Amino acid sequence: MHVSSIKAVVLDAEERSVTSHLVTDWLEKLKDVLYDADNLLDDFSTEALRKDLMGGNKLTKEVRLFFSSSNQFAYGLKMGKKIKAIKARLASIESEANTFGFMVHDRPVETSFMIKKRQQTHSFVSKDKIIRRVMIKRLF
User: Fold this and answer.
1) Residue 118 included in any domain
2) Residue 73, SS3 per DSSP
3) 119 lies in a domain?
4) What is the spatial distance between Cα 26 and Cα 29, in angstroms, rounded to a whole number?
């Protein structure tokens, strides 16, 4: 599924969530797994930065990493398990989405909760609404 298709499905889901608690729950599950995926990517970035900041030549870095508390083999296994768990959750969420029959539109549909009309403003003011300083000075 492409990002534009995902966006269209989410828009349809948000529209339906107004009347369906099941769809609201589905959106919450999707949001939770996406936050977890984002945290996983942050972990990868942090680990890459930590490796870059470590001093010494390549062999020294590898030996230090192997014997450190963040062993690369153990780190890879741990991250692999997290990735599999996220993939399983996404598959479950996708199968739930199929039961709802969300519509994939060619372009995003504007829904009533997305459209917020702003009050139109202008610089025109009628003469009777203007109070001049001269009038105010006369009052005091």
Assistant:
1) no
2) helix
3) no
4) 5
How many domains are there within the chain? 1
Q: How far apart are CA 27 and CA 13, in angstroms?
A: 7
Tokens of residue 137, six digits: 């000075």
Answer whether 132's CB lies under 8 Å from 32's CB. no
Tell me the residue range of the domain where 80 lies: 3-109
Helices (H), the chain: 3-17, 21-53, 58-67, 72-100, 133-139
> Over 60: is that where the pLDDT of 138 sits?
no
Q: Please report how the helices 72-100 and 3-17 are oriented relative to each other, as an axis angle in degrees rounded to 10.
A: 60
Sequence letter at residue 139: L
- At 27-51, the pLDDT tens digits run 999 999 999 999 999 988 888 787 7
| Tokens of residue 31, six digits | 């949001």
